[in-house]
Design brief:
elongated; binds nicotinamide-adenine-dinucleotide; 6-stranded parallel sheet
Length: about 325
């Protein structure tokens, strides 16, 4: 199924491959994948009434597929015949939730590169700036909602068609969309916790956020060490356990579905390479070319949200 924008407003209608109007069955609900948007028009929503056009409110910056696309059809066919599908996601899956990526056009990388661990440790000014920005910006991240792409992966997982989600993202949006936390592997940590760089103690981000109101430069209450979000910085080793689990999952894949990653960050980008080396097929959904495109069985160069929604609808027979 493909979606097209209706009249340029925030409603969408869904059309099939031939461009015929078909009904949608589900409402997109950020925090409850199978529920309904609070503002869902129950009268018109087919998920409620069993018929009629479902009116889904979508973000204005979500790219909606307008034409049937052969690469998407090939992805659906490839995934349809795969037994064990695993997903590997990057910052590109979260841009439709309003979080900028690193290397895409207009991404953070183009504006300013992130600090290294040694810069953070050695430079008081770097730490001061870091906590000041975090105090201002964390509430927005905390309140960010998953988009159609995250929700589609969660639907595929709970429908038994997707095993694990391995993510480079730190935004927690897969879990917020309903992905099983036990089967979501965060290679670069999470922004929703804060860790002591010296003793390793962890706190919920919200707790440190409250302290920031009176302590601009918080330190560890247990050892006095430096605190930072529990994310992996450049120059810092990846969490070994997460990496080992990701490699094990990669080896067990029939199909590795890469979504929204430039595939240039190592060693995370080895995950799809290990899958290929173990006999898996590779599908890449990304707006731009990646260094692994030539190894992929299918490359879909379209927006993640629309592609994954169409994939989930097709595999779950919606
Ligand atoms: P990246 O920024 O290097 O690459 C993102 C890719 O996704 C780009 O090639 C871009 O063209 C593509 N893209 C952007 N929006 C898309 C969309 N809607 N549909 C399809 N493709 C889209 O991301 P990366 O490979 O994950 O590496 C970046 C590193 O930065 C990671 O290590 C990650 O931890 C971190 N990061 C995380 C977040 C987050 O948690 N949301 C955001 C920025 C950076
Ligand atoms: Zn400590």
């Amino acid at each position: 199924m493909l979606a097209s924008r209706h009249g340029g407003d925030q409603r969408r209608i869904v059309v099939d491959w031939a461009g015929n109007l078909v009904w949608t069955r589900d409402c997109i609900v950020p925090s409850r994948p199978y529920g309904h948007k609070p503002d869902c028009d129950r009268e018109a929503c087919s998920a409620h009434s069993g018929e009629g056009l479902s009116r889904l409110t979508i973000r204005r910056d979500t790219t909606i597929l307008r034409e049937p696309d052969p690469s998407l059809a090939a992805l659906i066919e490839l995934a349809g015949s795969a037994r064990t599908i695993n997903a590997f996601t990057g910052a590109g899956i979260s841009t439709e939730s309003g979080i900028p990526d690193y290397r895409g056009p207009g991404g953070v990388w183009e504006r300013n590169a992130p600090p290294t661990l040694s810069d953070f440790r050695e430079n008081l000014e770097t730490r001061r700036q870091y906590w000041e920005e975090r105090r201002e910006r964390y509430p927005a991240l905390r309140d960010t909602q998953p988009n159609a792409g995250h929700l589609a992966l969660a639907r595929l997982q709970s429908g038994g068609r997707l095993s694990h989600v391995i993510t480079q993202n730190i935004d927690g949006l897969h879990q917020k969309a309903g992905s099983d936390p036990e089967r979501t592997i965060e290679l670069h940590g999470t922004a929703h916790r804060v860790r002591c760089l010296d003793c390793g103690a962890l706190w919920p981000a919200e707790q440190i956020q409250a302290r920031l109101e009176r302590e601009p430069l918080p330190s560890c209450e247990l050892c006095g060490g430096l605190l930072r979000a529990a994310t992996v910085l450049f120059g810092q080793a990846m969490p070994e356990d997460a990496l080992r689990r990701a490699f094990t999952v990669a080896r067990a894949s029939d199909l590795m579905l890469v979504v929204g990653s430039s595939l240039v960050v190592q060693p995370a980008a080895r995950v799809p390479q290990i899958a290929i080396a173990s006999g898996a097929r590779l599908a890449i959904v990304n707006n731009e070319p990646t260094p692994l495109d030539n190894l992929a069985d299918v490359v879909v160069r379209l927006s993640a949200g629309a592609v994954l929604s169409a994939l989930a609808d097709a595999l779950l027979d919606v």
